Amino acid sequence: MEEYLRLVKWLLESRNTVGFTGAGVSTESGIPDFRSPGGLWQRYDPQDFTFQNFLSNVSSRQRYWEMSTEAFTTISQAKPNAAHMALVELEQLGLLDSIITQNIDGLHQLAGSSPSRVIELHGTCRTVSCLSCRKRWPREDIHAMVLGGLKVPLCDSCGGLLKPDTISFGQPMPEKETAEAFRRSQEAELFLVLGSSLLVQPAASMPVVAKEGGARLVIVNRDPTALDSMADLLIRGSCGAVMQEVLKRLKESLRGLEPKA
Ligand code: NAD
User: What share of the chain is helix, strand, coil (3-state, %, to 5)?
Assistant: First the structure.
């Protein structure tokens, strides 16, 4: 299709391509997003999961750990899909500089993307930290205790509150990652959004910053997003199928560019 070829051409032309991923890049791995039918926000109230509620009341903390434990049970069994693998291949071909992800599932790194090139804007669910002394655990250790019946885990060193290393609504964004993501967006020549509604701030302002910095903006998403009118190219479809096709066309183009014997 013509739109795939356009993306291939832009990938080959760009000297600085940034992938920007949201929950939609992982739904094909079996991890539900928040806003689609069947998503987490149809069963849980997002207002309940603010950082302030987590800090101030024990019943919210308990509901947080219930929701988060359900999500981690799914995430810990999930495997990267074709979209994650396509980004790994793009990096290996020297055609992808970094990935800014809103996802907390760690699937880009599991797929094989270089950890140093993946910026986790909303943290990771694969570790848990004490909010007081910052002691850190692998998630599996705390997960086993919660599955064993512990409702609200506390730090064994200082008694502080434990929380997965993800960013909740109302929780300060990680400074280093946020600054790095804005810098990368500003410097991008091609900014490729995969599977995001582009509704969550400040992440959703990164495509705007990229565009203002002169980047071409491409959005691959199943449903309309908040920034469709700004995109240079919109591809409606599933991230896995679209990116598989893009990689196929890209490799054909690269073979065509090889010198003939
Ligand atoms: P979102 O739920 O707001 O939007 C997801 C978008 O992806 C939707 O527009 C949907 O149409 C699209 N989509 C779903 N499956 C798709 C597919 N296979 N192919 C193409 N498009 C598809 O997600 P968001 O924009 O990432 O923002 C929500 C927040 O939820 C983020 O902060 C993120 O941290 C968090 N979250 C993360 C995970 C995860 O780590 N896997 C899962 C759920 C939510």
Answer: 50, 20, 35
221: its two tokens: 């998403």
Q: What is the pLDDT of residues 139-171, one digit of tens each?
A: 999 999 999 999 999 999 999 999 999 999 999
Q: 101 CB less than 6 Å from ligand 1? A: no
Strand order in the sheet with 233-236: 118-120, 98-101, 17-21, 190-194, 216-221, 233-236
Contact 195, 220 (CB under 8 A): yes
Q: What is the pLDDT of residue 39?
A: 73
CA of 24 to the centre of ligand 1 (A): 4
Is residue 122 annotated as a catalytic residue, yes or no? yes
Q: Judging by DSSP bridges, how do beta strands 136-138 and 162-166 pair with one another?
A: unpaired
Name the residue at shortest CA distance from atom 23 of ligand 1.
Answer: 23
In 3D, which of 11, 18, 10, 30 has the Cα closest to residue 80?
30
Is 165's C-beta closer than 6 angstroms to any atom of ligand 1?
A: no
CB of 14 within 6 A of ligand 1: the answer is no
Return d(Cα 130, Cα 136) in angstroms, integer. 7
Nearest CA to ligand 1 atom 16: 24
Structure pTM? 0.95
